[in-house]
Amino acid sequence: AFYINAYNILCAEHVCRTIRSGGGLPASVKDCVPEGSKQKEIWDVPAGAVAGQTLSLNEIEHGVIRTRWDEPRVHACVNCASRSCPDLLGQAYRGDDRLDYQLTAQFKLWLRDETKGLTLDDAKKPMLSRIFLWYAGDFESRGGSPQYAARYAPPGAAKDALATTSPSYFAYDWSLNTQ
To answer: Which end of the chain, N or C, is less surrounded by CB atoms within 10 Å?
Structure first.
């Protein structure tokens, strides 16, 4: 919970820092690399101090969260400030007995969003977030991305289609989510 919150806060801070520096509202979080930075990607720019260590977003997500915790629902909770990213939870993640509930609720909320979670395409084929493709390995031990998504998907044709048809994936919209 601590590192999920840190990632989300520090990603938003990259955007805020860009605005404060006079750069205006960036079109994408990917446009928030500070001028003169040694890093070319925002994910590798030092984001802030977390538990006494200065970490980048990549170090938080891939070096801590995904390596220390085998939990695919985290992909619905780590928010990169992009329109295609799962929605940001309106409260802090808790390390107590609420965390499991929060992870499940966010995962279900994400899959209910037909613009970026799960829907049927024009050919009635299931379409999932590209995150399921990019992080397919995180779902492998749980039957694979489509099967895992089906467990949390809302009832309906898209959920049913996941059981029998390989999904296609949404194009990822990196535009800044200003909502």
So the answer is: C
pLDDT tens column, 82-116: 999 999 999 999 999 999 999 999 999 999 999 99
pTM value is: 0.95
Cα separation, 29 vs 88, in Å, equals 15
**CB burial readout 3-24, b (16+ within 10 A) else e:** bbbbbbebbeebbebbeeeeee
Q: What's the pLDDT at 63? A: 97
> What is the average per-residue pLDDT within 124-148?
96
Q: How far is CA 65 from the centre of its chain?
A: 12
pLDDT at position 72, please? 97
| Alpha helices for the chain (secondary structure H) | 2-18, 57-58, 66-68, 99-112, 130-134, 136-139, 145-152, 157-162
Q: What is the pLDDT of residue 55?
A: 98
- Angle in degrees, CA 62, 63, 69, rounded to 5: 75
- Name residue 83's amino acid: R
What's the DSSP call for residue 179? Answer: -
